[in-house]
Amino acid sequence: MGHNLYTFVMMQKAISLIPSEIPTGKLHAYLLGAVGPRPIAFASTIDEQGIPNLSPFSFFNVFSANPPILIFSPARRVRDNTTKHTLDNVLKIKEVVINIVNYELVQQMSLTSTEYGEKENEFKKAGLTMLESDLVRPYRVAESPVQFECKVTKVEPLGEEGGAGNLVFSEVVKMHFYESILDENGLIDQFKIDQVARMGGNWYSRANKGMFEVPKPLSAIGIGVDNIPKEIRSLKMLTGNDLGLLGNVDRIPDKNEIEEFIASNDQIRSIVKNKDTTELLKITREYLDNNKILSAWKVLLINIEINGNTRKN
Ligand SMILES: Cc1cc2nc3c(=O)[nH]c(=O)nc-3n(C[C@H](O)[C@H](O)[C@H](O)COP(=O)(O)O)c2cc1C
């Protein structure tokens, strides 16, 4: 207040850096913290054996309408200069489906960025549905509100060292939109699409609401939605985001931990005594909404234990 723009600018202290003089990891963090929010390409590819791969890339945008070109960039790992399966795949099978990520998909999307082995199908790990494409071999993400079937026309490496990007030129040959995101003119309603974008650190932006955090998937690899017991997976109260969070733990709590949890929690003890499933599921919801994922797991396992089949909920 009281300052004109010139005095304000003069009062700012700045740090100035030459990229080659700082470690790549730090440079990466500055670039990602400054350039955002970035849209997310949820890229589905396939290898020569037909094994599907699904991973998110926020070095992504649309660059041309005629021809319709999207570009995303799987980078060489800063850590050890290895390449990502997505890059290896598009160099051999030159096709990709780029799926758009809405808020409902964000946790499952995040789970697919875990470094699962080459043979692991991330659709399965994240509990997402593989939908056959019409013109390309890679599958679409059925849950995604927009799916672009693309032919890869060029892959342009930007360097040879850790951190180097690889531009994957993806020409759209067919696109699919959910009718539920269209407006009365048949165009995409910018509120209904409910897009999310990536920012620096663990931050994302929900375009029509604001910023939120998704902790990076564990470096210890998450068990995956496919390893969540059937009785839990089929609970109607659990959303895709809930399943993504539950699949991101590195192991399921054991009997001892659950007993300790019950012993140390009066409320849970009395609910267990009354076999009150409704109350247990209410508490599960609270834990999930407050990001207490291990506690949510414990309550869900207690629920199986005391009620057996809970599918009606
Ligand atoms: C939201 C989000 C955006 C990401 N963007 C990129 C990116 O632009 N480039 C990249 O190399 N990795 C990116 N990653 C990390 C990759 O998704 C991750 O390395 C993944 O395991 C690669 O899988 P793949 O080896 O199966 O291709 C991103 C991760 C997340 C969660």
Task: Give me the secondary-structure topology.
Layout: H1 5-11, H2 24-34, E1 38-39, E2 41-46, E3 52-57, E4 60-65, E5 68-72, H3 85-92, E6 95-100, H4 106-112, H5 122-126, E7 130-131, E8 140-141, E9 146-157, E10 166-177, E11 196-198, E12 203-206, E13 210-213, H6 230-233, H7 240-246, H8 255-263, H9 266-274, H10 277-289, H11 293-307
Antiparallel strand pairs: 1-11, 2-3, 2-6, 4-5, 5-10, 6-9, 7-8, 9-10, 11-12, 12-13
Helix pairs in contact: 4-7, 10-11
The structure holds flavin mononucleotide.
The CATH homology group name of the largest domain:
Electron Transport, Fmn-binding Protein, Chain A
Biggest sheet record: 7 strands, antiparallel
Q: Summarize the helix and strand pattern as letters.
A: HHEEEEEHEHHEEEEEEEHHHHHH
Mean pLDDT: 93
Distance between the termini: 56 Å
Instruction: Identify the CATH architecture of the largest domain.
Output: Roll
Our Rg estimate from Cα atoms comes to 22 Å
Instruction: Give the cofactors and ligands.
Output: flavin mononucleotide
Total domain modules: 2
